[in-house]
User: What shape does this take?
Amino acid sequence: MNLMRRLVQEEEGAALVEYGLLVALIALVAIGAITVTGTQVDAVFQGIAANLVVP
Assistant: This one.
């Protein structure tokens, strides 16, 4: 009976570790995408600002 409990607990622990790694990977991808997108948007606005004529 103790053996079964240990096996179930170890599998749950392994699943938690896998979910944690998955969440970390998703967070890294999201941060990278937001950084790249932000840089591109900044470049667009800088180009627009450079072309504005002061009256």
Notes: The mean pLDDT is 85. The helical segments are 2-51.
